[in-house]
Amino acid sequence: MKFEEALTIAEKVKELLAPHCERIEIAGSIRRKKPEVKDIEIVAIPKPYDVGLFESGIATVVNQWEKVKGELPCKYTQRILPEGIKLDLFFAERDNWGLIYALRTGSADYSHHILASGWVFQGYRSESGYLQIDGERIVVREEEDLFKLLHMPYLEPEKRNC
What range(s) does the DNA polymerase beta thumb domain occupy (predicted)? Predict the structure, then answer.
Protein backbone atom coordinates (compact mmCIF):
# COMPACT_ATOMS: atom_id res chain seq x y z
CA MET A 1 0.00 0.00 0.00
CA LYS A 2 1.22 3.50 -0.77
CA PHE A 3 2.45 5.62 2.14
CA GLU A 4 -0.29 8.28 1.83
CA GLU A 5 -3.12 5.73 1.91
CA ALA A 6 -1.60 3.83 4.84
CA LEU A 7 -1.04 7.09 6.76
CA THR A 8 -4.68 8.08 6.30
CA ILE A 9 -5.86 4.71 7.65
CA ALA A 10 -3.35 4.82 10.53
CA GLU A 11 -4.46 8.30 11.55
CA LYS A 12 -8.09 7.13 11.53
CA VAL A 13 -7.20 4.15 13.76
CA LYS A 14 -5.21 6.40 16.08
CA GLU A 15 -8.19 8.76 16.34
CA LEU A 16 -10.52 5.85 17.22
CA LEU A 17 -8.17 4.51 19.89
CA ALA A 18 -6.95 7.83 21.35
CA PRO A 19 -9.86 8.40 23.78
CA HIS A 20 -8.95 5.06 25.39
CA CYS A 21 -5.22 5.78 25.69
CA GLU A 22 -2.92 7.81 27.88
CA ARG A 23 -0.56 7.99 24.91
CA ILE A 24 -0.67 6.68 21.34
CA GLU A 25 1.58 7.10 18.29
CA ILE A 26 2.03 5.67 14.83
CA ALA A 27 5.29 3.73 14.47
CA GLY A 28 6.85 1.40 11.90
CA SER A 29 7.33 2.11 8.23
CA ILE A 30 4.77 4.91 8.29
CA ARG A 31 6.81 6.79 10.89
CA ARG A 32 9.91 6.12 8.81
CA LYS A 33 8.00 7.52 5.78
CA LYS A 34 8.62 4.53 3.53
CA PRO A 35 6.95 4.83 0.10
CA GLU A 36 5.43 1.32 0.43
CA VAL A 37 3.79 0.13 3.64
CA LYS A 38 2.98 -3.53 4.41
CA ASP A 39 1.24 -3.00 7.75
CA ILE A 40 0.28 -0.35 10.26
CA GLU A 41 2.12 -0.30 13.58
CA ILE A 42 0.82 1.64 16.54
CA VAL A 43 2.20 1.89 20.07
CA ALA A 44 -0.22 2.78 22.85
CA ILE A 45 -0.43 3.14 26.60
CA PRO A 46 -4.06 2.14 27.18
CA LYS A 47 -6.22 3.46 29.95
CA PRO A 48 -7.65 0.70 32.17
CA TYR A 49 -10.16 -1.45 30.31
CA ASP A 50 -12.18 -4.66 30.66
CA VAL A 51 -12.71 -7.56 28.30
CA GLY A 52 -15.32 -10.28 28.15
CA LEU A 53 -19.02 -9.87 28.74
CA PHE A 54 -18.71 -6.28 29.94
CA GLU A 55 -16.08 -4.90 27.55
CA SER A 56 -14.94 -1.36 28.04
CA GLY A 57 -12.30 1.07 26.85
CA ILE A 58 -9.89 0.16 24.09
CA ALA A 59 -11.29 -3.38 23.88
CA THR A 60 -14.58 -2.04 22.48
CA VAL A 61 -12.70 -0.69 19.46
CA VAL A 62 -9.96 -3.31 18.96
CA ASN A 63 -12.29 -6.30 19.26
CA GLN A 64 -14.34 -5.02 16.31
CA TRP A 65 -11.45 -5.94 14.02
CA GLU A 66 -10.63 -9.48 12.91
CA LYS A 67 -8.07 -11.01 15.26
CA VAL A 68 -4.97 -12.68 13.81
CA LYS A 69 -3.20 -13.07 17.15
CA GLY A 70 -3.07 -11.62 20.65
CA GLU A 71 -6.15 -11.83 22.87
CA LEU A 72 -6.72 -8.72 24.99
CA PRO A 73 -5.32 -8.02 27.54
CA CYS A 74 -1.86 -8.53 26.06
CA LYS A 75 1.35 -6.71 25.08
CA TYR A 76 0.70 -7.16 21.35
CA THR A 77 -2.23 -7.92 19.12
CA GLN A 78 -2.48 -8.17 15.36
CA ARG A 79 -5.75 -7.36 13.64
CA ILE A 80 -7.04 -7.00 10.09
CA LEU A 81 -8.58 -3.60 9.50
CA PRO A 82 -11.69 -3.22 7.30
CA GLU A 83 -9.45 -1.71 4.60
CA GLY A 84 -7.62 -5.07 4.39
CA ILE A 85 -4.29 -3.99 5.90
CA LYS A 86 -2.81 -5.55 9.06
CA LEU A 87 -2.63 -3.57 12.28
CA ASP A 88 0.14 -4.42 14.73
CA LEU A 89 -0.86 -2.84 18.03
CA PHE A 90 1.80 -2.80 20.75
CA PHE A 91 0.99 -1.90 24.34
CA ALA A 92 3.56 -0.06 26.43
CA GLU A 93 3.69 1.45 29.90
CA ARG A 94 4.86 4.91 30.91
CA ASP A 95 8.24 3.58 32.07
CA ASN A 96 9.05 1.61 28.89
CA TRP A 97 7.42 3.82 26.24
CA GLY A 98 10.74 5.01 24.79
CA LEU A 99 12.08 1.48 24.37
CA ILE A 100 8.92 0.05 22.81
CA TYR A 101 8.37 3.06 20.53
CA ALA A 102 11.97 2.99 19.27
CA LEU A 103 11.92 -0.76 18.66
CA ARG A 104 8.56 -0.65 16.89
CA THR A 105 9.60 2.28 14.73
CA GLY A 106 12.31 0.02 13.30
CA SER A 107 13.48 -0.80 10.81
CA ALA A 108 13.70 -4.40 12.03
CA ASP A 109 17.37 -4.54 11.00
CA TYR A 110 18.10 -1.24 12.74
CA SER A 111 16.34 -2.33 15.94
CA HIS A 112 18.13 -5.67 16.00
CA HIS A 113 21.61 -4.80 14.76
CA ILE A 114 22.04 -1.31 16.16
CA LEU A 115 19.82 -0.85 19.21
CA ALA A 116 19.70 -4.39 20.60
CA SER A 117 23.38 -5.10 20.00
CA GLY A 118 24.14 -1.71 21.61
CA TRP A 119 22.39 -2.59 24.85
CA VAL A 120 23.77 -6.15 24.95
CA PHE A 121 27.29 -4.79 24.44
CA GLN A 122 26.76 -2.50 27.45
CA GLY A 123 25.46 -5.29 29.71
CA TYR A 124 21.72 -4.68 29.46
CA ARG A 125 19.20 -7.35 28.68
CA SER A 126 15.60 -7.12 27.63
CA GLU A 127 12.92 -8.78 29.73
CA SER A 128 9.16 -8.31 29.65
CA GLY A 129 9.39 -5.10 27.62
CA TYR A 130 12.03 -3.46 29.82
CA LEU A 131 15.78 -3.17 29.78
CA GLN A 132 17.48 -4.55 32.87
CA ILE A 133 20.99 -4.56 34.25
CA ASP A 134 22.08 -6.45 37.35
CA GLY A 135 18.42 -7.29 38.04
CA GLU A 136 17.40 -3.62 38.05
CA ARG A 137 14.66 -2.47 35.68
CA ILE A 138 15.70 0.58 33.66
CA VAL A 139 13.13 3.31 32.98
CA VAL A 140 13.12 4.46 29.33
CA ARG A 141 10.27 6.97 29.07
CA GLU A 142 11.28 8.60 25.77
CA GLU A 143 13.18 7.46 22.69
CA GLU A 144 15.84 10.06 23.36
CA ASP A 145 16.43 8.39 26.76
CA LEU A 146 17.22 5.11 25.00
CA PHE A 147 19.72 6.72 22.66
CA LYS A 148 21.40 8.52 25.60
CA LEU A 149 21.53 5.29 27.59
CA LEU A 150 23.25 3.59 24.65
CA HIS A 151 25.62 6.56 24.15
CA MET A 152 24.28 7.07 20.63
CA PRO A 153 23.18 10.26 18.92
CA TYR A 154 19.43 10.45 18.35
CA LEU A 155 18.61 9.37 14.81
CA GLU A 156 15.48 10.58 13.05
CA PRO A 157 13.12 7.71 12.13
CA GLU A 158 13.55 8.20 8.36
CA LYS A 159 17.27 7.43 8.75
CA ARG A 160 16.88 4.24 10.80
CA ASN A 161 17.90 1.70 8.22
CA CYS A 162 20.87 -0.64 8.13
Answer: 130-161
- Structural domain count, the chain: 2
Whether residues 15 and 87 fall in one domain: yes
Contact 26, 41 (CB under 8 A): yes
For residue 121, what is the domain's CATH number?
3.30.210.10
Domain end (from 76, 91, 106): 91
The domain containing residue 124 runs over which residues? Answer: 95-159
d(CA 37, CA 119): 28
Measured in whole angstroms, how far is the alpha carbon of residue 113 from the centre of its chain?
Answer: 18
74 and 42 both lie in a single domain: yes
